[in-house]
Amino acid sequence: MASSTVVTTGSERPPYSGATALPAVWAEEHWYAAYTRAQHEKTVAAELGMREVEHFLPLYSSVRRWKDRRVTLETPLFAGYVFVRLALRDRLRVLQVPSVVRLVGFNGQPAALPDSEMEIMRSGLSPSSGAEPHPFLTVGRHVRITGGPFAGLEGVLRRRKSGARVIVSLGLIQRSVAVDVDIADVRPAI
């Protein structure tokens, strides 16, 4: 059995024995929701890009009417949130960004979002997906999407004139997104 010893010479000091190493989970990269100041999501995303922090800010097109004109705007799908992928030990790289309020979590600890859910959201949310914000729902029929770009996600079914619309909710941040899906790709959740 091998043992390790610390040898010091002259000005070297042994490592501080009272220090505790960070838990291994702090070195693992996960997705987290960064809560931002109101209407600062794009600014935060630009700053995270300059700091080389992997982030995700889903946008959707919305038409706004101002006086005599209509303007199409790219607006954050989840108002007040930017998703970041990082190890907890690197959280200050995000928390030091102006306009970032905190990482969403419980009891003062950031809560990781499921990687599989985030990957589905990243690959499925495109300008052609027709996703738009929807009020967070707590009641309704729960369904699982079995086909298409959102396969694997669960949500609440809401009928529409043509096809179906499923409300996918991210409980951690209490936000929902309405997505159009083929009715054949929807099954009751178990």
Strand content: 35-45%
Runs in which pLDDT lies below 50 for 5 or more consecutive residues are 1-18
Biggest β-sheet: strands ordered side by side in the sheet? 9-13-12-11-10-14
- The tally of structural domains comes to 2
Radius of gyration: 22 Å
Largest sheet: 6 strands, antiparallel
Q: Going by CATH, what is the homologous superfamily of the largest domain? A: NusG, N-terminal domain
- How many beta-strand elements? 14
Order of helices and strands: EHEEEEHEEEHEEEEEE
The termini sit apart by 51 Å
Mean pLDDT: 83
Q: Remind me, CATH topology of the largest domain?
A: Alpha-Beta Plaits
Brief summary:
The chain has 190 residues and is mainly beta. The protein contains three helices and 14 strands.
